């Protein structure tokens, strides 16, 4: 099955404005009608991957993170550490059943690992 | 895939976990005793009051020796003292990611102590009719869903909240302690716990 990049996420201090910006620019539609109020972004195409926008704290900073789907988060974390990664957010289960973690590569670039509940 | 909690801040700011603890402890003592002052606290810590003032204002760096001495004078457990020392060491280390995470946790704790919405969310969890829905929480607290999500992210990072399942959110604080000062003490304890875990992970690197 490989280990594909399945989602991008924008962490933003102005999520509403960004939603509108990308809607006007690309026609991307945002839907936050879910229990976490998470802005799921649909690009309108079956090609490529979909994304989301999550609010950043005022004292925080904006960033974009790509999420790689894996079958076993814990095993991938261990492997990543062996290869020089560091754990930013340890594995955790989300309310929707997905599991995720965020790590940095040896250059310090941040990316996420996710195991969707359906896998 | 739905929401993915993130660290929200990697800036370098002068926020020491132990300084936060000292500030919180002084505020707690002052609220319990109107006569209590910075000088009283300095006497307790066996340090010059002007030095303590500089430390509390972030004008003077807290050394490992100061953390150990003050921690003992305040009857902190050796485990907690070591956690605060570990955080200080992480901040000084070249392990920038770990240092940033320690910094993030401290900033989270500062926000939890200054914004009562965090405590309010945990209180809502105790209600029989609580709904694990950000939109519902936002309506009850008269705030925006984004503000609730930012608060939830901080509570999750500090380990005060666990989203076990979509329908089951767990208050990981001591639900019997709803006094503001007790809550502050819990936040500091959770900060200490999380930093200890961080330090342990860092040590394995």
Topology:
The complex is a heterodimer of chains A (119) and B (205).
Chain A: E1 5-12, H1 15-26, E2 29-31, E3 39-42, E4 50-55, E5 63-69, H2 73-82, E6 86-93, E7 99-104, E8 110-115
Chain B: H1 17-32, H2 38-45, H3 49-56, H4 64-73, H5 78-92, H6 96-114, H7 117-125, H8 134-141, H9 145-157, E1 161-165, E2 168-171, H10 180-204
Antiparallel strand pairs in B: 1-2
Mind summarizing the main beta sheet of chain A?
Answer: 8 strands, mixed
CATH homologous superfamily identity of the largest domain in chain A: 2,3-Dihydroxybiphenyl 1,2-Dioxygenase, domain 1
Rg calc of chain A? 15 Å
Largest sheet of chain B: 2 strands, antiparallel
The number of domains of chain A: 2
CATH architecture of the largest domain in chain A: Roll
In total, the number of domains of chain B comes to: 1
Strand content of chain B: under 5%
CATH class call of the largest domain in chain A = Alpha Beta
Order of helices and strands of chain A: EHEEEEHEEE
Helix content percent band of chain A: 10-25%
Classify the secondary structure makeup of chain B into a structural class: mainly alpha
Q: Residue-averaged pLDDT of chain A, rounded?
A: 89
Report, as a whole number of angstroms, the end-to-end distance of chain B.
30 Å
Number of strands of chain B: 2
Spatial order of the strands forming the largest sheet of chain B: 1-2
* Structural class by SSE content of chain A: alpha+beta
Taking all Cα atoms into account, the compactness measure Rg of chain B is 18 Å
- Write down the oligomeric state: heterodimer
Give an overview of the whole structure:
- The complex is a heterodimer of chains A (119) and B (205).
- Chain A is of the alpha+beta class and 119 residues long.
- Chain A has two domains: 7-64, Roll (2,3-Dihydroxybiphenyl 1,2-Dioxygenase, domain 1); 70-119, 2,3-Dihydroxybiphenyl 1,2-Dioxygenase, domain 1 (Roll).
- Chain A contains two helices and eight strands.
- An eight-stranded mixed sheet of chain A has the order 2-3-4-1-5-8-7-6.
- In chain A, a hairpin with a 5-residue loop joins strand 6 (86-93) and strand 7.
- Chain A is globular.
- The termini of chain A are close together.
- With 205 residues, chain B is mainly alpha-helical.
- Chain B has one domain (17-204).
- Chain B has ten helices and two strands.
- Chain B has helices spanning 17-32, 38-45, 49-56, 64-73, 78-92, 96-114, 117-125, 134-141, 145-157, 180-204, and strands spanning 161-165, 168-171.
- The radius of gyration of chain B is 18 Å and the shape is globular.
